[in-house]
Amino acid sequence: MASSRAINVLFLIGLLLVPFVWDSFVAYQLGLFLLYGMVGQGIGLCWGRAGFLPLGQALFFGIGAYVFGATLKSADGSGIVLVAGLLAAVLAPALFAFGVGLLVFIRQIGSGPYFSLITLALTMLGFQLANSMDWLTGGFNGMTGIPALPGTDTYETLYYVIWAALVLVSGLLAYVGTAPFGQLLGATAQNEERLQYFGFNTALLKAIAFAISAAVAGLAGALFAPHQGIVTPQAVGFLLSAEIVVWTAVGGRASLIGPVLGAILIGFMASELRDSFQYWEVLIALIFVIVVIRFPGGLWSLVEGLARRAPSLGAKRARERDIGIEKSRTDGPVDLVFEDVELVLGPVRILDKLSFRIETPGVHSIIGPNGAGKTSAFNVLTGRLKPTAGRIRYNGSSVGGLSRHRIARMGIARKLQIPSVFPDLSVGRNVDIALWAGDLTHSQMFTLRPFRWTTPLLGEMQGIFPFLGEADHSAGSLSLGQRQMLDFAMTCLTQSPLLLLDEPCAALSSSETGEMIDAIEKIVALTGSTAIIIEHDMQVVERLSDHVLVLNQGALLANGAMEEIRADPAVRAVYGGGSK
Amino acid sequence: MDLVALQGLNFVYISLTLALVALGLAVVFGLLGVMNMAHGEFVMLGAYSVLVVQNAGLPFLAALPLALALCAAVGWLLEFLVIRHLYRRPFDTLLATWGLAILIREIVEASFGRDYKSIDQSLPGTVDMFGVDYPAYRIVLMALIVVFFIGLLVWYSRSNTGARIKAMVSNPALATAVGINTALLARGAFIFGVCMAGLAGVALSPLVRVEPYMGLDYLLSSFFILVVGGLGSLAGLLVGSTVIGGSDAIVSAITSKTGGYMTVLVISILFLWLRPNGIVARD
Cα A29 from chain centroid? Predict the structure, then answer.
């Protein structure tokens, strides 16, 4: 990481020297590519990090260009007007993108084709509007006669302004990427649903990322206006949007500088070859297809690969966890009520008037044959599925129909059956996300202090699971058993009053199962929380819990202490003669 | 009165042609779950087939086999090289087909140029319909589309292949287990989908602007039709085409083309927001 930061800095310094090494005309050309590269950096934030692809980024570029172009034409050298115009050129696209993003992302279908096609449609609409609104944009012929940025010469010194903007944007994006916000965005791309069970509003996170990318595009567009002296509808159009996506991909969408490199290289090659080589665009399209499918790292990963052979500049230093925090939702009493809950999917009745109440702390077990509705009960409780009928109340308030992150924030934490950690993040970052759950404010997402958070429970946890201490290991490299344990530890670290553990011992060896049982016992006793576990292994159930719920065919079959359950003839009938 | 008849005919015409254009995407996206960003480019290939045939001095109908062969070949290659590896990875398919769309567009642009091409009207003249003179080609086209859709509906609901496709869509693993070759079936459905796009391109070529970037509009309107109508059924496709085509035609007539476009976009976003499964939800 340290060496890649050094390359980024060297690259930016190198750009500053271009007017001296070559001439100011090269720098003038380069300035345009740097502006496009900035737009690409914004796309990189959305696509490379958060995992959704905006296809209409030129819309924001164009809005910035028109707004600031109009400002320059009417400012008459007034500083205040210029600053206000620049702010509008940056903020208007950001607010618009935020609104569109939130609207689309709140629906669960948001990240894939739906988002991309809507952004594509918006840029097509923008092009039509720019073309038809002559009185505002100059129509087809464009907004012409835009004066130079006051205090600069378009062909000489404007380059330095653009360079400064690029440095500013790069620094900002680097910081945002390192801060908790960036880590959470990465986690969203890896497992959005899991992050929602930690109480994070992922739609909001993605909408903010989209807004940041739009703000960057707006800033680039604002500088485009004095650079070109004219803004035509092409600046909002589909073609430019698509080209910038191509440059971003070829340069390296997951890196900070890659999109800029892509814009510079393809930009200069295009101006050399476009007229002499008829199939130039075909070649670029072909390269794009190959890069997208085979080399997602793009050109920048080659640069970094070379740099890795050079001696590293300073070793990476893990941050000390030295800020003790108090989790806000400490473990209070729990009162969970299922009242005639029904869940019908198509012709299948999964939950059939399921009713029960849990109001004592400790470990409660849900058992039942396959298809009894155990996991479905968790699903309707945590917002994964919406109950068809009936009521679920948690500490007096209704849960039904709320979104996952809201339910999580009420103090319900869930571990899924398949261990779900964030594989591309380190163990330490995974732990961070659990510690942040429910307590990280929006402003703290943009500071570095939350990486130093710790709680007394984390200390206990590291005692139980020593591998948690190796914070720099990637979570994806852990064994299946360790991932189960990490997932369990993360669920507990939220310190939610109610813990839902779906088969915590699945896929564990017998010695690991023993460790896990001990851990569950210890943590629940320590925190005084209420845990509900789904388990098939009767020995585990017997050791852990004094209260057992038996589900069958989506309804409660029996409910009581283990001995009562064993004696119950109905349970015996379902289990074909009793437990193993 | 004549105006009403004329607008009514236009309304039916727009809805039917849009349904034909969207049919291919309804198969590929609605049934296979593959967001084919190159859908519009296959429509474009169909239209350019007509141009090639016309330049060679052959009759209009000769474009049909050419377009079908071309789309089938490109579709097969695409499925074989890219799509079949990505059936469960919607985001990667989006990217790959987006890249291929650019590639197809650039190849056509490099070979035929950027400018608009004009396609000769092969069936000139008008027919008297409900008291208005309506272009004969449009009348014939509407009739053919209706016949084609009825045939398709009958075939899909009666044939073995239709039943196999439904089995594959609702449970691919089980379908494989009972002996359905889902890999082959998916490939067939994909190729059928892109061929339908090409067919639509042939049919519409005399009536629309033909240029390398024409596909984008068709991709977007097809997508919006599926969003509004719902995935997975022919009824949804027809309802979606009527809503999208109708609102576009009405608002465009009253205000401007941009107004119509904006209306379609707003309606689609509202549907995504309020009724994400569309008007005719699957099952």
Answer: 35
